[in-house]
């Protein structure tokens, strides 16, 4: 990035962004722009075509773009010469020119995006290969820019560029590097998640075979666990199998004892995901680690509570309104209101009914056979009674497990 040839970068990018915007507007409002020779989009493109001669000629990757701009200029001139003529020939020429201008504008936009992608990936790989460059803000900016680009959706040319540049390996190395700042490592984790969302089929193998999950668990931050939750939802049982075989289940359960509330909340989310996708071995590992006892303690805490008795936390007006909705046509409206009330309660009490919520995940999840579900439900009931501080507490939690876990 210290290469003198890069000094023109910001100026080139500014010109190309303007060209891209003008090309996009030309495609979005073709008839309006083609019928008005002084339209902002056409004027911008033609002005930038003149300015770009000196800028684009310095970059061989932009030679095709320069050709497209010249073609666009010629097509617009042809179109404008036919304006005002009423002959069949002029009419056909305008129709052909309109189609050609729209097509060339699309090609211009694609070429510009390809150039921006090349520059962005090149800059990102440079900073990731130089971990000691002391440019945290720049690294985070490039990582965020990369995430945003991936969020726009799949693009084969971009994918080829990412694979050729070995971006995933660089992100993984940064994530695993204890000398990198926590902020950079977390944004590297976000970028890995974005790559899975971009094309799971291509990048999932690298997550399963590499140290990504172990690094996320070792970081033990709310953001790293959030990415882990997303990866479990995306990759499902195969990733849970890897976590279990690597002996990481006890470390995840231990997060429930963390002083950082956000870590505990995200750990709870992670445990629910494992419960949904985990096979028998993973669920056994969680129960053997004393998960149910920890969940009972969390449900008993200030951030816990019982959803089965949520009505007592609602105002009289709320209950009356819900009853009217249910009695009118009202079942669907009442259901939505109860769900909304439950969501609000869980926002302030993230461990409310956490035992039953875990049991529900086992009941409706993808990882267990039916007989395994029944056996685990019985185990949960036994462990709840052992962990409860009173018969009343045990009765409430068991009732939630037995009723709430029914499909």
Main beta sheet: strand number and arrangement? Answer: none
Question: In the CATH hierarchy, what is the architecture of one domain at level 2?
Answer: Up-down Bundle
Question: In sequence order, what are the helices and strands, one letter per element?
Answer: HHHHHHHHHHHHHHHHHHHHHH
Assembly status? single chain
- The share of residues in extended strands comes to under 5%
Instruction: Give the CA-based shape.
Output: elongated
Distance between the termini: 57 Å
**What top-tier CATH class of one domain fits best?**
Mainly Alpha
Task: Tell me roughly what share of residues is in helical segments.
Answer: over 70%
**CATH topology title of one domain:** Four Helix Bundle (Hemerythrin (Met), subunit A)
Radius of gyration: 29 Å
**Mean pLDDT across all amino acids:** 84
């Amino acid at each position: 990035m210290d290469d003198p040839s890069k000094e023109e970068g910001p100026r080139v990018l500014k010109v190309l962004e303007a060209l891209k915007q003008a090309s996009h507007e030309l495609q979005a409002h073709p008839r309006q722009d083609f019928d008005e020779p002084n339209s902002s989009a056409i004027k911008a493109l033609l002005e930038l075509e003149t300015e770009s001669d000196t800028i684009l000629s310095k970059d061989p990757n932009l030679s095709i773009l320069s050709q497209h701009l010249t073609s666009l200029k010629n097509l617009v001139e042809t179109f404008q010469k036919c304006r005002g003529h009423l002959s069949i020939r002029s009419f056909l020429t305008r129709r052909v020119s309109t189609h050609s201008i729209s097509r060339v504008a699309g090609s211009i936009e694609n070429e510009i995006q390809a150039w921006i992608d090349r520059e962005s990936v090149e800059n990102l790989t440079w900073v990731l290969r130089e971990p000691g460059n002391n440019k945290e803000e720049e690294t985070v900016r490039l990582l965020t820019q990369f995430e945003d680009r991936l969020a726009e959706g799949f693009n084969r040319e971009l994918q080829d560029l990412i694979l050729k540049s070995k971006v995933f390996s660089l992100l993984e190395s940064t994530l695993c590097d204890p000398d990198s700042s926590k902020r950079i490592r977390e944004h590297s984790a976000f970028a890995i998640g974005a790559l899975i969302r971009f094309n799971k089929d291509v990048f999932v193998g690298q997550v399963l075979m590499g140290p990504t999950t172990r690094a996320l668990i070792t970081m033990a931050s709310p953001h790293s666990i959030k990415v882990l939750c997303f990866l479990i939802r995306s990759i499902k049982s195969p990733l849970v199998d890897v976590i279990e075989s690597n002996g990481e289940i006890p470390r995840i359960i231990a997060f429930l004892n963390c002083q950082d509330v956000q870590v505990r909340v995200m750990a709870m989310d992670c445990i629910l995901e494992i419960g949904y996708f985990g096979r028998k071995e993973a669920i056994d590992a969680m129960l053997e680690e004393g998960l149910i006892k920890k969940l009972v303690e969390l449900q008993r805490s200030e951030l816990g509570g019982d959803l089965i008795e949520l009505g007592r936390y609602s105002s009289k007006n709320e209950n009356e309104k819900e009853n009217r909705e249910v009695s009118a046509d009202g079942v669907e409206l009442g259901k939505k209101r109860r769900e909304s009330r439950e969501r609000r309660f869980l926002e302030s009490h993230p461990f409310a009914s956490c035992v039953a919520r875990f049991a529900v995940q086992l009941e409706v999840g993808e990882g267990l056979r039916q007989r395994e579900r029944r056996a685990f439900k019985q185990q949960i009931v036994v462990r709840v009674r052992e962990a409860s501080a009173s018969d009343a507490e045990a009765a409430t939690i068991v009732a939630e497990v037995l009723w709430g876990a029914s499909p």
